[in-house]
Specification:
alpha+beta, 2 helices, 5 strands, globular
Length: about 120
């Protein structure tokens, strides 16, 4: 498997999720399916935005350059997803446009070694 370093290493559905997380900034992604190590974005998962009032935090959505190097959190998310045969990310918490933590449901592999 090719090492994930920048957006050029992402599958189209992974890039779509990166862009959505950057627009979301703070919140969570719910019910995100994984099949054969790939995200399933049809139907699009539920996006829940955290909105805070009277704070100095910017609520503006970030735009992404076409290509850029990925932060470690994004790399770890997609490395994990690509190792899952079948499952669902119940809740992916997003902070500052980056994946922070997730709850995932997946079937244990028959040999106990792989995720999925």
């Amino acid at each position: 498997m090719k090492q994930i370093v920048s957006t050029t290493d992402l599958q189209p559905q992974e890039r779509a999720l990166v862009d959505a997380m950057r627009r979301l900034q703070f919140g969570r992604v719910e019910a995100l399916r994984i099949e054969r190590g790939e995200l399933v974005l049809d139907p699009w998962p539920t996006m829940v935005e955290n909105v805070k009032f009277a704070t100095k935090e910017s609520t503006g959505h970030q735009t992404s350059p076409h290509e850029f190097k990925l932060k470690r959190q994004v790399v770890e998310l997609f490395e994990y997803v690509r190792a899952v045969e079948a499952g669902e990310i119940h809740c992916l918490e997003v902070r500052h446009g980056l994946p922070f933590s997730m709850e995932i449901r997946h079937r244990p592999a028959g040999d106990g070694g792989d995720r999925g």
